[in-house]
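Researcher: Go.
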Amino acid sequence: MAALAGLSILVPESRELDLFARMLEAEGATALRCPLVQILDLDDTKDVDAWIGAFIARPFDDLVLLTGEGLRRLLTLSGARRRAFIGALEKTRLVTRGPKPARALREIGLVPSLPAVEPTSDGVLQALAHENLKGRHIGVQLYPGNGGRPLVQALAARGAEVFPVTPYRYADEADRERVVEIIYAVAAGRIGLIAFTATPQIERLMAVAQDAGLGAELKQGLARTPIAAIGPVVGESLHRIGVAPTIQPKDNFHLKPLVRAIIAWRGSQESPA
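Model: Structure:
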């Protein structure tokens, strides 16, 4: 019998929804697709264009990359300046938070100069903990929302001159009706497992629930539903809303290790006591 046969798994993934769903379905699970966050181009690229121009003209001492999507978007937005942009990257110490920005760097033949010990903003700060940042020019590639702002503030507090950039945006109304349906299903205990792969998925789910007057019902449903978190950043986001993840890989925060962790958990649930 397939390892996940008979298990319904909510897949609130956006960029790699179909890939993740197929991986789970190959193990026998029923994947319930629910795209909570849609990534879109910026309406106005003026500020990003200026940031790219400044970076090319004078490469920063450090560039902190929080997401792989962010780097890919910057490369696209650099347009005819792509080669010059990559040249500036080559002259900069590249600090990565987690495997996704590292993978995006490898796609253009580069590697991280300083990977964070843990794939979190705190991990980035720990990697820089023993360095004098006063006067250093540090670029920070952010993602939409306020999740990366404490990192910017912490670097500035240590004397760095910080240059943040957010090269994409989220669609707030991605399939709202479908999200409400899922909230009812979670509240009713009809979901076998939820697999979160990014913090914005949690934020979006909570926001729709509050807007629909279902905040309490969702939290009660989450409390009794097994939850998988792809890594510590997502785990921390769950803890902030009072939910403890049931499954979380200890390292290698990718989809394949997450699937393996889910399979291991399912096996432990079915093993005789």
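Model: The radius of gyration is 20 Å.
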